[in-house]
Fold this sequence. Notes:
CATH topology of the largest domain: Spore Coat Polysaccharide Biosynthesis Protein SpsA, Chain A
CATH superfamily of the largest domain: Spore Coat Polysaccharide Biosynthesis Protein SpsA, Chain A
Oligomer: single chain
CATH class of the largest domain: Alpha Beta
Shape: globular
Amino acid sequence: MQSVTIVATVLNEVGDIERLVTSLLAQEPPANEVIVVDGGSTDGTWERLVALQARDERLAPIRDESCNLKNSPGPIARGRNVAIRAAKSDVIACADAGCRYAPDWLGNLVAPLLSGKAEYALGGSCVDAEICTVWDVAAAPFFGIRLAADAPIKSCTARSMAFTRSFWEKIGGFPEHVLLGEDTLFDLEARKQTTPAFISKAKALYAPQFTLQTAIEKMGRYAACDGQARVRWSRLVRNAERCIVELAALALLPWSVIPLLAVLVFELWVAFRFDWKDLVRYGLGAITARFIFSLALPWIVTTNHIRGLFSTKPLINPQNEIATVEKGSTRI
């Protein structure tokens, strides 16, 4: 296998960092190096990275405190770019905190790049069934997450993405002016240049440990970032239309229940059209939670996208709220 570098960026991920790194170092065939950029963690993440590096020299931690919201409007994108610039390989695979990876993930993901059949590949993500919550399952398709490891994918996520260095340079790297959605913006530019290779058997195993509140908050941050970045207008329109139709159906109740029944039928289709065959195995609780989150989704997306359109204040990630850093960079 040709030289391949895996890159990831983290901030205050002490609870997940060992699971992530261990799975990346266990890839078969192995990566030549695994570069993890820490944006200035204060919870022990950096110390865990140093300890893990002592066990396996392929791990190359970089502490770069410019990759933090205090010092950059797009710390995640900046962290990815810092890692890629430091990489020694011409083929780059992106991974993410909060995930773990099956041993054949890397080989499957980069195969079309190494064979010269593609310069950009997407693997997607699926729910980590071993540790997921009911709200992970409920919110999954609305975050582009599948419930089955072999489900086809057409969306992008930097949780499982690979490209050649020359392609990354041609795109101009990950955009560092947004907090979230940097992979979406990268993908929009990438698809102007090429058609991605979609690899269904290269999914990141992801378990964000959502509650209803945290799922709503994260979807709201994504939508607000879309508004600030002036992207995904069609998504805003679709969700705004759902809000308007729901209000109209409620307004017409004194005269007829039929519009509301039609809306409920449509909302059932929206909630379950992606993966109902896989969802049923998680039980009635997950099915109910899916419908609740799907009903809330248009209101979350519409209000937060509009908020982002009119807001210049930087958004905050929970990880950034507990980090106190100064600029600097260290590589071990």
